[in-house]
Amino acid sequence: MMDTTRRLIIAHIALAMLVFAVMAQDAGAQKMDEMWGRQVMMLKAVDAERGQLFEDGNYAMFIHWGLYSNIGNLYKGKSYYGIGEWIMNRNMADIPIDEYKALAGKFNPVKFDADEIAKLAKDAGMKYIVITSKHHDGLAMYHSKVNKFNIVDATPFGRDPMKELAKACQKYGLGLGFYYSHNQDWTFPGGGNGPKQTADGKDADFKYYYENKCRPQVEEITTHYGPIAIVWFDTPGRIPREYVEELVRIVRKNQPKALVSGRAGYGLGDYQTLGDMEVPNENVEGIWETVDTTNDSWAYAWYDNYWKAPKEILHRLVSCVGRGGTYMLNIGPKGDGTVPELATRTLRKAGEWIRRYPQVVYGADASPWKHALPWGDVTVKNNTLFLCVFNEPKSGELYLPGLKTKVKSACLLDGKKRGTKLKVRTMGNWTKIQLPPRPAEKLIPVVQVELDESPEVDSCWGIDPALETTILAQFAEVTGAKQETKKWMEKFGEWKHLVRVWQWAEGGKASWEVDVLKSGYYNVDLTYNGEGRIVWGVDVAGGQHIQNQQNSSHNYQKFPIGWINFPEPGRYTVSVSCIEGNLAQASLKAIHFTFVD
Ligand code: JFZ
After folding, report:
1. What predicted TM-score, i.e. pTM, was given to this entire model?
2. Among 271, 264, 339, 284, which residue's Cα sits nearest to residue 307?
3. Which of 176, 222, 351, 364 could staple 124 via S-S, CB 3.0–4.6 A?
4. How far apart are CA 514 and CA 240, in angstroms?
5. Which atom of ligand 1 is nearest to the CA of 179?
6. What DSSP line would sit under 249-308, residue for residue?
7. Any ligand 1 atom below 6 A from CB of 17
8. What is the DSSP secondary-structure string of 77-121?
9. Is the pLDDT of residue 45 over 60?
10. Could you tell me if the CB of 234 is within 6 A of ligand 1?
11. pLDDT at 275
12. Cα four-point dihedral sign 408, 412, 414, 418
């Protein structure tokens, strides 16, 4: 199971990058498949000196800020929906290069306050900041000596915000990293997806851009701003390998302690960044991060008010740490330099929780369950489990399926005192912990569990007696149907993804092994999409079969199928099949079990 899922995750990152690259590059980019693939496979260990911040911190601030922020997805009276830093792109406002460059004359972010941003990151509980020193649009957000298209020389602002931020990060003890778009440069001749000729009509190739802008600018950002924690290269596209090798050499030479992002290309970076905005469902090996946004767009978009609530931010953070990774959460400051008010508010609230339970996040390791549990998720430090309860069962009963290690004690943390001791009961493969009726912690209660040794867990899926249990199609064993990743853009550049099982042959099925503690009847729901009415069957091996017809829509929706009985506690194999309707299009995302009687 682990292998299948890992392969799926890897395949889907590769696919995502390919799709994105094809979207960004012109046709004929097939070779990229191979290149992205190779990059994704490389998972290295960070050495002791480099990347300690990344390994231990687990939580960082990403900042997309540039000339595009001053447009905010409103151009010449029309709103464009999607990632703001791509506003120039033909799928967005399609702004001609000269017209875009001229906009720099009106970019004057006088309210930019580096100290306030660094303090926000600090209050939010983040350990370092990665900011766009140059994005695909080509405007350097620092005082570049090698190219005039930079915030000091090309705008009325006249200040170097990166200098200011470097100073503020030092003051607050935060790491500083620079995002640098090394391949794509849409305004400099020869840059990836940029103009093909210089201003005086001479042909410009990538080498021209690389030697005249990219390389010297990477020298600048790695020498002028003190110690740098990360250089975050992005979207390598078709950049030839030797350029990436040289850029990495430059970073190593100037900043031996800095990490290089995996999106440098060719597996030459130090760690892997998953597909954007993706919190993985199963543990991922190696050194990796998820990058995510506080709302939908990376760069400021005037309409974008869909903020992640503090609880959702913490949920995604804990899930990333629980899956073995690091979480970097983005803010998009406005064209005047200020951070949107609701972003600061939600980040600070989440930060207060982290201050109450720092041990759950910093230096914490992956969950031995390797996936979320119905009530929440788990992070680990040595022989201690931290159970983060996102979804409190009404009964207060927290069930841990398949924990093989002996529990010494469990207590509910309250952020101040030693915590409240909780009752623990072992029942075969299951451990039950009883929460008090109303935990004082309103956001996410944390239970600390002390074990005899480091945790070991049986990988079977437990059916929770107290809460709905959801098992994804990603985790199914599949025969006679296709299990694959579906990726799509919700808005332009806003990626969504899931693993589905579809294209059902007759007799095809998706199966899961489950462990039942409480015998009896469970209602089964399926989440799927498709066309028209569909008949689904659910079977318990050697036992019952139920089937039902329900409608479908092109969005994934949950539909009830009916009750099945698990007559005794123990292990069962449950499988889903698609019996009638458009079997090719019927696309299963998850199965759900809820105890009824
Ligand atoms: C890139 C940029 O193009 C984008 O503007 C933003 O900076 C983001 C953080 O990174 O976009 C990507 C790159 C890779 C994937 C998706 C979007 N991917 O692998 O899914």
Report:
1. 0.93
2. 339
3. 351
4. 48
5. 7
6. HHHHHH-TT-EEBGGGSTT-SSBEEPSTT---SS---SSEEEEEESSS-SS--TT---PP
7. yes
8. TEE--B-GGGTTSTTTT---HHHHHHGGGG---TT--HHHHHHHH
9. no
10. yes
11. 84
12. negative
CA distances from 528 to 172, 280, 518, 563, 572 (A): 47, 19, 27, 18, 23
229 and 258 Cβ atoms separated by less than 8 Å = yes
Confidence of residue 25 (pLDDT cuts 50, 70, 90): very low
Q: Which residues pair with 381 in a beta bridge?
A: 384
The verdict on the CB of residue 464 being under 6 Å from ligand 1 is: no
Q: Is 60 exceeded by the pLDDT of residue 475?
A: yes
Cβ contact 125:351 at 8 Å: yes
- Contact at 8 Å (CB) between 502 and 510? no
* Whether 288 contacts 327, CB under 8 Å: no
| 3-state SS class at 546 | strand
The alpha carbon of 440 and the centre of ligand 1 are apart by a number of angstroms equal to 40
What's the confidence (pLDDT) of residue 419? 87
Q: Quick one: pLDDT at residue 50?
A: 81
Ligand 1 nearest atom to the CA of residue 493, by list position: 17
CA dihedral 348, 351, 356, 362 (to 10 degrees): -170
Residue 36 near ligand 1, beta carbon < 6 Å: no
Model pLDDT, residue 35: 35
Q: Is the CB of 385 under 6 A from ligand 1?
A: no
- From the list 233, 209, 184, 186, the residue with the least C-alpha distance to 21 is 184
According to the model, what pLDDT value does residue 55 have? 83
pLDDT at position 414 is 84
487 Cα nearest atom in ligand 1: 20
In terms of Cβ atoms closer than 10 Å to its own Cβ (0-12, 13-18, 19+), residue 219 is: middle
Ligand 1 centre to CA of 220 (Å) is 24
* 53: three-class secondary structure by DSSP: helix
Closest CA to 415 of 466, 358, 337: 358
Closest ligand 1 atom number to CA of residue 275 = 20
Ligand 1 site, residue 15, Cβ cutoff 6 A: no
Residue nearest to atom 12 of ligand 1 (CA): 276
Tokens 């590059």, residue located: 25
User: Is the per-residue pLDDT at 97 higher than 90?
Assistant: yes
User: In this model, does residue 16 exceed pLDDT 80?
Assistant: no
Closest ligand 1 atom to 62 CA: 9
